[in-house]
Amino acid sequence: MLKELRPAILITFVLTILTGILYPLAVTGLAQTLFHKQANGSLIERDGKVIGSEIIGQNFAKPEYFHPRPSQNSYDAANSGGSNLGPTNPALADRLKKDAAQFRKDNPDYTGPIPADAITASASGLDPEQWSKVAFYEGQGCIECAGTGFRGRTAIHELLDLSDRVRELILLKKPTSEIRRAAREEGMRFLRESALDKVRLGLTTLKEINKVTFIESNR
Asked: What residue segments make up the domains of the chain, in order of their start?
């Protein structure tokens, strides 16, 4: 028994050292040496203080700045989701009216129609750095598909592996956000991520997945 266990223990130990310590240290060292700025988030500093990042949008209120498109998740790059409000939802109409009024206030000399992107938040909130080279498809539609552009259905999946850690959190009645965070750390992929995979493959559209998936503000 010991003769059989010894190689297994040795291999586990060696692989732990190589892949769990040496490899991460090597990759981190190379990134910090060759791509120091990018590896640390492409941060923007002023007077020694970090004020933002080159790849993350920010909210600007002063009139001398270009105002970005409204963000449903307060420009949080860790999130990717819309408000999940339908076009007939009063809350959405109220927000649009408020943003339109603010736009007119900030731009008193402009009398033309308000650009839609100036008051509508992105329904997807995707990081352009990761998605700029992804081609998005949308079916033209026909009589047979009632103009939807889709044929048949495809499934998106979310599977929770009830590990000891997750089970204990559930039994202790921990907040859902804490349970989801633990599940993610253990490799769980959520419905939104499964849906985005379908978008990457050209099997569906962002418009469709935004109808059935969203990401909470706190995960």
From this structure: 1-40, 133-212
